[in-house]
């Protein structure tokens, strides 16, 4: 019986330990945790009585601090729990009985800023001493790489430093040696370490801007290849930091401030923030900017106007005037930069040229010069040539010497960020490399075309002009020759049919059936598609028969008489002039006159008299038309 009671007690005790282990993370007593066995924490933002206000929900692992403002090491998730980060946050901590409230929160360090995890992700301190973060599907996300270093415990210090230590209490690994974008008071930055800004206020992934210790100074730069510096430290120290040439240390100023941190922003600024008016913080912490350490003018920041854009008058942005090569990324938001219309291709370097921007400066020239990095002493022509001969070069910055006979300073850029208008300062020029069309290359102002090329282009232009003029003249001449005939259709609308020469070739079987020949041409037999037979009169020559052709079409085409053959249509195409008549089934007049059973002399006399009257009638009509303009 006692044995059964002992077994039940063991089961209940095990369940109690499991329950406690799930609640262990929210206990403020977990400041210094030491364990000789594997320890596991699970990301469960909704467990226990944790209440995340604002947009963050927490799964605390360690808490440090005695007042309401504390450092929290654990998971912080967005409102929908779709992205969670393991890190250290400054939070407002309150408890009522067993209920714990966490308000607001400022993330000052993160282990997985580039790789958010999901709910049920795990953090495990293993027997081998390695602290490992794995996503909910088991994917390895981050670790301290401390395998085999005899790690015996995990601690969060009162300054916000996460520490792994060994049995002798010696620090094996600490978060202060692996900063993200913030420095806490007392935290050092040495050579080989760097701060890296976030992409934006809503995206904590690593962005373009960094701060590091280099060559006896600390400097900020934009991450390119090679890096482009935009600030190097000039003063030995300030109220917010100190620097001895090797170590940059963040300071608490004033010493009585509740909380403070330095952050490298996504815009490249290095700002100091302090907690403001803690008593009235109802929905999170109220951080106030108390200083901008870099003290640069707006145009001196690399991305103030975006890539290839020119910063004017302390913040106004505009694209280079060469509209054939650049356009704004957004017309409504000019500080997003400019896009290159035709990307530069190394396979067609023969079509590269440089666009000259006079009185234009670049933010990194001075600092690269001070650091003896990528600055050469060259003449301006050699500086241009060096950029054109190097495909990686996207632009060249040139600062001339006061003595024009001496070489100036040349900086080659593999990436182009914001440019600076320096119209008040002469001697600084930026040459932007552009990709020209292979058919119409654009030459920079300083380049000259060879004399042979100019002569060749001039001759080609003259030949093209003469060819066009000749073609137009020929077309005008042909139109003039055929002009009179092309106007026949509107003269007799609905009476005559205009035939094409190809149609007549088909109708007459290629003019194979000849009926007769006269002074102006030959007559051929043809058959229309409806079976009607026709006679096609083919006139010889254009100039000789022009007036005869027009007269016959205008007069005969408009007269319909029982004793006159009917004109059906005509053809006036190029040099071809043809008249189409109805076919005389009974043959020609001379055939009937000369045959044996032909006309008697009396009938012949009557025909002659009728013909004379008809001729008079026709001539009278023609004269009437001419005299009265009909």
From TrEMBL:
Residues 509-630 form the Protein kinase domain. Residues 47-177 form the Bulb-type lectin domain. Keywords: ATP-binding, EGF-like domain, Glycoprotein, Membrane, Nucleotide-binding, Signal, Transferase, Transmembrane, Transmembrane helix. ATP binds at residue 537. Gene3D superfamilies: 2.90.10.30, Phosphorylase Kinase, domain 1 (3.30.200.20). GO terms for molecular function: ATP binding; transferase activity. The chain crosses the membrane at residues 453-472. The keyword Metal-binding does not apply. The keyword ATP-binding applies. SMART domains: B_lectin, TyrKc. Residues 346-436 form the Apple domain. PROSITE patterns: BULB_LECTIN, PAN, PROTEIN_KINASE_ATP, PROTEIN_KINASE_DOM. It comes from the Eukaryota. This is Receptor-like serine/threonine-protein kinase.
């Amino acid at each position: 019986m006692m044995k059964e009671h002992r077994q039940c007690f063991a089961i209940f005790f095990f369940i109690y330990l499991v329950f406690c282990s799930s609640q262990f993370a929210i206990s403020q007593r977990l400041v210094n945790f030491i364990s000789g066995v594997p320890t596991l924490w699970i990301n469960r933002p909704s467990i226990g009585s944790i209440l995340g206000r604002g947009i963050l929900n927490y799964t605390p692992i360690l808490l440090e601090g005695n007042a309401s403002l504390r450092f929290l090491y654990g998971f912080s998730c967005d409102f929908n729990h779709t992205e969670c980060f393991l890190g250290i946050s400054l939070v407002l901590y309150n408890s009522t009985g067993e209920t714990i409230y966490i308000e607001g929160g400022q993330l000052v360090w993160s282990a997985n800023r580039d790789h958010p995890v999901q709910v049920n992700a795990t953090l495990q301190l293993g027997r081998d001493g390695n602290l490992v973060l794995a996503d909910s599907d088991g994917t390895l996300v981050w670790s301290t790489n401390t395998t085999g270093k005899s790690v015996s415990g995990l601690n969060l210090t009162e300054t916000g430093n996460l520490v792994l230590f060994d049995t002798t209490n010696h620090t094996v690994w600490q978060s202060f040696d692996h900063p993200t974008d913030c420095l806490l008071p007392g935290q050092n930055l040495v050579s080989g370490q760097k701060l890296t800004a976030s992409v934006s206020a809503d995206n904590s992934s690593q962005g373009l801007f960094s701060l590091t210790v280099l060559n006896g100074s600390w400097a900020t730069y934009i991450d390119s290849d090679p890096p482009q510096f935009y600030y190097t430290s000039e003063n030995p120290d300030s109220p917010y930091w100190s620097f001895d040439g090797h170590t940059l240390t963040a300071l608490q100023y004033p010493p009585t401030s509740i909380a403070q941190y330095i952050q490298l922003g996504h815009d490249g600024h290095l700002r100091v923030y302090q907690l403001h008016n803690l008593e009235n913080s109802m929905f999170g912490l109220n951080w106030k900017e108390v200083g901008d350490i870099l003290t640069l003018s707006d145009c001196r920041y690399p991305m103030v106007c975006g890539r290839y854009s020119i910063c004017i008058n302390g913040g106004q942005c505009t694209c280079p005037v060469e509209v054939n090569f650049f356009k704004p990324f957004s017309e409504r938001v000019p500080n997003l930069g400019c896009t290159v219309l035709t990307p530069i291709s190394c396979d067609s370097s023969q079509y590269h040229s440089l666009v000259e921007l006079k009185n234009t400066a670049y933010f990194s020239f001075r600092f690269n010069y001070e650091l003896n990095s990528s600055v050469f002493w060259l003449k301006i022509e050699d500086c241009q040539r060096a950029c054109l001969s190097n495909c990686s070069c996207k632009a060249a910055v040139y600062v001339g010497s006061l003595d024009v006979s001496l070489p100036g300073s040349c900086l080659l850029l593999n990436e182009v960020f914001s440019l600076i208008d320096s119209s008040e300062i002469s001697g600084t020029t930026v040459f932007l490399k552009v990709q020209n069309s292979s058919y119409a290359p654009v030459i920079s102002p300083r380049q000259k075309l060879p004399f042979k090329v100019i002569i060749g282009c001039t001759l080609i232009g003259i030949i093209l002009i003469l060819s066009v003029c000749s073609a137009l003249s020929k077309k005008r001449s042909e139109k003039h020759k055929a002009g009179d005939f092309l106007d026949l259709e509107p003269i007799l609308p609905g009476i005559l049919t205009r035939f094409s020469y190809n149609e007549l070739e088909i109708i007459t079987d290629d003019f194979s059936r000849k009926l007769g020949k006269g002074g102006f041409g030959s007559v051929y037999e043809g058959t229309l598609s409806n079976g009607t037979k026709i006679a096609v009169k083919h006139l010889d020559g254009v100039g000789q028969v022009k007036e005869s052709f027009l007269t016959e079409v205008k007069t005969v085409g408009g007269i319909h008489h029982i004793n006159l053959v009917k004109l059906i249509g005509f053809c006036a195409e190029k040099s071809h002039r043809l008249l189409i008549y109805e076919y005389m089934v009974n043959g020609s007049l001379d055939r009937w006159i000369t045959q044996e059973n032909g006309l008697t002399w009396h009938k012949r006399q009557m025909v002659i008299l009728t013909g004379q009257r008809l001729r008079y009638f026709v001539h009278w009509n023609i004269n009437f038309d001419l005299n009265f303009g009909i």
